[in-house]
Amino acid sequence: MRHLINPLDFSLDELHDLLNLADDIAAAPEKYQDVCAHKKLATLFYEPSTRTRLSFEAAMMNLGGSVLGFSSADSSSASKGESVADTIRVVSAYADIAAMRHPREGAPLRASMYSRIPVINAGDGGHEHPTQTLTDLMTIRRRCGKLDGLTIGLCGDLKFGRTVHSLITTMVRYPNTKFVLISPKELRVPDYIYNDVLKPSGCRYVKTTSLEEAMPQLDVLYMTRIQRERFADPNEYRRLKDSYILTPDKMALGKPDLAVLHPLPRVNEITLEVDDDPRAAYFEQAQNGVYVRMALIMTLLGLTEKPLADKPASSRELVEMHCPNPRCITGVEEGVKHLFHRAPDGVLRCIYCEQEA
Ligand SMILES: [Zn+2]
Q1: Which sequence positions are flagged as catalytic?
Q2: Ligand 1 center–CA 315 separation, angstroms
Q3: Residue 311 φ then ψ, to 5°
Q4: Could you tell me the sign of the dihedral formed by the alpha carbons of 291, 292, 296, 297, in that order?
């Protein structure tokens, strides 16, 4: 049985098949309306994320399946102190597949270790949000016709933006990708992304603070929101928040076939006038999110022509040591072992949250 916990859980071939299926669904959704008849999706949302939950629920309903679940920790047995491991063992008896959103990093991985049904990570703290990445890939591929050889501009909060980190980690697997990292100095991509992902990949990348200068060379512009809650100092937030507002003037500097993406919700980083520009792809991106989740549910349930092969058991060596990350699932989960493995860069990292030892 396979799960989707990390954007890299699928090989490039598996990803290719999944995106082809999502395109096929987009072309003729009615062909798939009964594929999941009598199947149930459990949405286990320990923190509210209405948009993501609705996207999963719409995906399952479009496939003829049904949905059960909870939308906050208060309404789940987590409020009574039940572990994620126990919850998923119980839910495995109720549903055929589960999507889990959790404020603790590594919670969906922990669940997958005890689950008898496929588990989808629907966002774990600041760590990963792989179905957003699938949505981004589908949108880029449909707009640009390919995933290799693209110049991708990432703009705004590149430090805390988890969607940005996942997109970089995924896009470095495609040949001749170039990144233009557009952000204030304070919100640059964290060092570990440079050291563990960008530099070893050999992909070209440039850092800039100017969106205007970057615009003419971009095939894709990925905008992000600068979040107030990331700043200790409200004055700092006010100074930076309007740095990178996309306006029709800036759009005029872009290529005619540029694609503008945004994980949504936006605040004011893209002005409403840009919505009418045919290069704005962000609402289409939200629609693609439903198609790609439909394709994912079918794939993990083994309802496709070419079922996923089981993954070989990992031979990586695990070391038991304390995880210092306060956002890690190991901090709250009853009976969990704090396990670390040696990452490709030689550093020991927590298997749940990837915190360095
Ligand atoms: Zn950890």
Answers
A1: 51-52, 80, 101, 129
A2: 20
A3: -80, 140
A4: negative
Domain ranges of the chain: 7-129+287-300, 131-286, 318-350
User: Are domains 7-129+287-300 and 131-286 of this chain identical in fold?
Assistant: yes
Token pair of 231, please?
């700043």
CA of 164 relative to ligand 1 center, distance in Å = 21
Buried b (16+ CB within 10 A) or exposed e, 305-326: eeebeeeeeeeeeeeeeebebe
Domain 7-129+287-300: which CATH number of 3.40.50.1370, 3.65.10.10, 3.40.570.10, 3.40.640.10 = 3.40.50.1370
Tokens of 268: 């004011």
The answer to pTM > 0.90 is yes
Q: What is the pLDDT of residues 202-227, one digit of tens each?
A: 999 999 999 999 999 999 999 998 87
Ligand 1 centroid to residue 47 C-alpha, Å: 19
CATH fold for domain 131-286: Rossmann fold (3.40.50)
- Which string of b and e fits 3-14 if b means at least 16 CB within 10 Å? bbbbbebbeeee
Instruction: Return the percentage of the chain with pLDDT > 70, whole number.
Output: 98
Distance from residue 81's CA to the centre of ligand 1 (Å): 20
